[in-house]
Specification:
Blueprint (H helix, E strand, L loop, with lengths): L3 H6 L9 E3 L7 H10 L2 E3 L12 H7 L3 H10 L3 H4 L6 H19 L1
């Protein structure tokens, strides 16, 4: 939850996303308020024992989050990405791009 603003600052697109989907750790009224000031709607399921702040319509979008989690799981099969052997970030990013290419190639 503490790195959400930093992640949005380091994005590679010019426009901010309309919605940001996170897991239960992102359920915070303070984070919701800070993201609302930027024009971003936070979508995350409520933690147990907290008051419901979202209706069911927004949480339907959360159900498609498994696609992202599945992609990270596929990338974790690449040993070179799991254990970062590269000293420089550019080399690591190159291997990450290669792994993504091979994932897409396998799906075709």
């Amino acid at each position: 939850m503490t790195l959400v603003e930093q992640t949005l600052r380091c994005r590679f697109t010019t426009a901010l996303p309309e919605r940001l989907i996170g897991d239960k750790a992102y359920d915070s009224n303070g984070l919701d308020a800070r993201m609302a000031l930027r024009g971003v709607r936070m979508i995350s399921p409520n933690r147990t024992g907290t008051r419901r702040t979202q209706d069911g319509r927004e949480l339907r979008r959360y159900k498609r989050r498994w696609k992202i989690e599945r992609t990270f799981a596929w990338l974790s099969f690449k040993r070179r990405l799991v254990t970062r052997y590269e000293r420089y970030i550019t080399n690591f990013e190159a291997f990450l791009h290669c792994a993504c290419f091979f994932l897409l190639f396998k799906l075709l």
